[in-house]
Design a protein that fits this description.
The protein has about 350 residues and is an alpha/beta fold. The protein is built from 14 helices and 13 strands. The chain is globular and about 65 Å long.
């Protein structure tokens, strides 16, 4: 048996690829760009930082097919033309659909938003199709999205994005979810239980080991790690910060920029922002923080909460299912969004 994997982005699929490669099951991996497939040359630091995110460790370059032109176009145009990402994703999807006809494989694993044509072609070719679902059911995303999406974003989600997701599901044999929250979402919308599997993401406990020293003086140091997007609750976090006494809290935000750019600009000077760090660099920031805060409004799974817990942090997560799941068997803080105003009290009892 051979497995074809297709993901325009990266997400968490590197571990899947490594496992398939180690078992001799990986046929080919399609993606927008793989840095380990590019020739080594002197590139600007900003380009090197982008490419470092896209190294697929342990995967032979000959088993990777990428489309670096699509990646470059998406990076250059996405801020000015938000629809470009969907257009380029469709091009990528159609390319994979054409190529898989000539690739010997039994199973096709794909990811949402760039997989409709791929799954259709795979079923037509008699392949077993698996959706590795990074979120919850698309109709539930809309319901949660009413709390943080603009009217235009909601219309796009309902009229453009969701019909493609629904069509891709028609050609899907099995769905993998990251959490029981996501699984329950799929079941609620009629997906068969015998074709649904939950596989939680893990954490490298050797790398994310508990810190040995804890401060008892100075301002409370808060850390957020994740994409800078409204969905992650960035507005809640920054608005709460404004209402705390000056000098009592230091906030560090780490993660790629998305649709929360305006929010960060409004609160400029009140926090430290780092756009991207590799795990080996990220560990030091986890160690330096007192509390990890993750005020996400919608997530299928909270990987960074697991990392923070592995380092013996008190993670503060909101009262919505997925971010709380890693915390369900541990003594950690949880709060409704308004409770962010009581951070000093929380830290005093941690």
């Amino acid at each position: 048996m051979k497995v074809l994997v297709s993901n325009f982005g990266r997400q968490y699929c590197n571990q899947l690829l490594i496992a398939l490669q180690e078992k001799g099951l990986l046929a080919v991996f399609f993606t927008s760009i793989a840095a380990n497939k590019l020739p080594e040359r002197n590139l600007p630091e900003v380009v090197q930082q982008q490419l470092r995110k896209r190294v697929f460790s342990g995967i032979p370059p000959k088993k990777i097919e990428h489309s670096p032109v699509l990646f470059a176009l998406e990076r250059v145009l996405r801020d000015r033309f938000p629809w470009v990402g969907r257009l380029l994703g469709d091009w990528f999807d159609r390319r994979v659909a054409r190529r898989l006809q000539r690739i010997p494989c039994t199973v096709v694993i794909s990811y949402e938003n760039t997989n409709c044509a791929t799954m259709r072609a795979a079923k037509a070719a008699g392949k077993i199709t698996i959706l590795d679902l990074a979120q919850i059911h698309h109709e539930d995303i809309v319901e949660y999205g009413r709390g943080f999406m603009s009217p235009k974003q909601l219309r796009t989600e309902i009229e453009v994005v969701n019909p493609k997701k629904a069509e891709a599901l028609r050609y899907t044999d099995y769905v993998l979810t990251l959490s029981t929250f996501a699984a329950e979402s799929m079941l609620r919308h009629g997906w068969p239980a015998d074709r649904l599997f939950t596989v939680n993401l893990g954490v490298d406990v050797q790398r994310f080991a508990p810190k040995k020293h804890y401060r008892h003086e100075g301002p409370l140091r808060l850390l957020f790690v994740g994409t800078m997007t409204k969905r992650k609750g960035i507005k809640i976090l920054l608005d709460a910060l404004e209402q705390l006494p000056p000098g009592t809290v230091e906030l560090t935000l780490i993660g790629p920029m998305a649709d929360a750019r305006d929010r960060l600009r409004e609160h400029a000077g009140k926090f430290r922002y780092l756009p991207f760090l590799h795990h080996e660099e990220l560990v030091g920031h986890y160690q330096a923080a007192d509390v990890f805060v993750f005020p996400s409004l919608l997530d299928s799974w909270a990987q960074t909460v697991l990392e923070a817990m592995a380092m013996a942090h008190l993670p503060l997560s909101p009262k919505i299912p997925a971010p709380r799941m890693p915390c369900s068997r541990a003594a950690v803080g949880s709060y409704p969004p308004t409770m962010l105003l009581h951070w000093p009290t929380v830290s005093g009892t941690a």
